[in-house]
Specification:
heterodimer, A: 2 domains, five-stranded antiparallel sheet, B: Virus Head Decoration Protein, Chain: A
Chain lengths: 147, 148
């Protein structure tokens, strides 16, 4: 499996009706691209979010609705939204029905299929997510804890 | 415990509170109040009556009856409070219980209380008692249970 090297671009992220979608506004602590999985930044401060990376050791809060520069407001699609997420793999698809976890990839803010063990869960794939592509997912973040 | 064998017909509307709904396509006959899943290799945006054997986290509780192939089938998703059905016809489920997708192979889409232990597919939390062979209110918040 080959990880993608750059985060793909996509104009439309949210699938849920924006009138009912649980959207929340935070501040970007670094450049964030539309569709990136984000976590609260554990170092920058309150209400700052950063692209999801296992090194952050922080649970996922949602998917960035738009891109944002560092220090700019950013709208996040939180639990309950249906939106597009990006596959971390350039060679392997993720099947529909898969539980999705934050990837430990070259590119932050991507997803892969959860198999076992501790992980930061993003949600559920509602359709096939092509390699190096996008797919629709139900966002339901939580930390999967192994006791 | 005696597992029910037919899904109890809902007499009230399923959604109690919330507006986080989305439409999917029924992959099989579905009854209002059934827990539903999108399952591995089951097809994009196709929903099935929830059961343990599907090995998938549920997405929500279906709001209407449907037959296989119906499109625009409304599902109550994360954050909704709606009615769900007990998988057992002799034992109630207590309010406050975490609810898992049923292992009752004769009646898909029903609920059982999660007792801890093995990994299970959780649909939400009972916010009222759920009578034996009856319906009760459920806060939809699906996830995998913590791994023991």
């Amino acid at each position: 499996m080959a990880d993608i090297e750059t985060f793909p671009t996509r104009a439309t992220i949210l699938v849920t009706d924006p009138q009912i979608a649980p959207l929340r506004t935070f501040t970007a602590s670094e450049v964030i691209y539309a569709g990136q999985v984000v976590t609260v930044d554990p170092t920058t401060g309150d209400n700052y979010v950063t692209p999801g990376d296992l090194d952050n050791a922080a649970p996922v809060i949602g998917i960035a609705l738009y891109g944002a520069a560092s220090g700019a407001p950013i709208t996040v699609c939180t639990a309950g939204c249906i939106c597009y997420v990006a596959n971390e793999s350039g060679s392997a698809a993720v099947g529909e029905g898969s539980t999705l976890m934050l990837a430990n990839a070259n590119v932050a803010g991507t997803v892969l299929a959860y198999a076992s063990g501790a992980a930061y869960i993003v949600g559920i794939a509602l359709e096939d997510i092509a390699a190096n592509g996008w797919g629709r997912a139900l966002v339901m973040p939580y930390a999967e804890v192994v006791s | 415990m005696t597992a029910i064998s037919t899904f109890t017909t809902a007499t009230d509307r399923i959604l109690v509170h919330g507006d986080n709904q989305y439409t999917f396509t029924a992959a099989e006959t579905l009854y209002a109040g059934q827990v539903v899943q999108v399952i591995p290799a089951g097809g994009d945006f196709l929903i099935y009556g929830g059961k343990l054997a599907n090995t998938a986290v549920p997405i929500g509780i279906v709001d209407q009856n449907a037959t296989s192939g119906d499109t625009d089938v409304t599902v109550n998703l994360y954050g909704c409070v709606c009615y769900g059905a007990n998988a057992d016809d002799t034992t109630a489920i207590d309010a406050g219980s975490a609810l898992r997708v049923t292992a009752n192979t004769s009646c898909d889409g029903t609920l059982q209380a999660w007792a801890g232990g093995a990994t299970e597919y959780i649909i939400g939390i009972a916010v009222t008692d759920i009578a034996a062979d009856g319906f009760g209110k459920v806060l939809v918040c699906p996830h995998l249970s913590a791994i023991a």
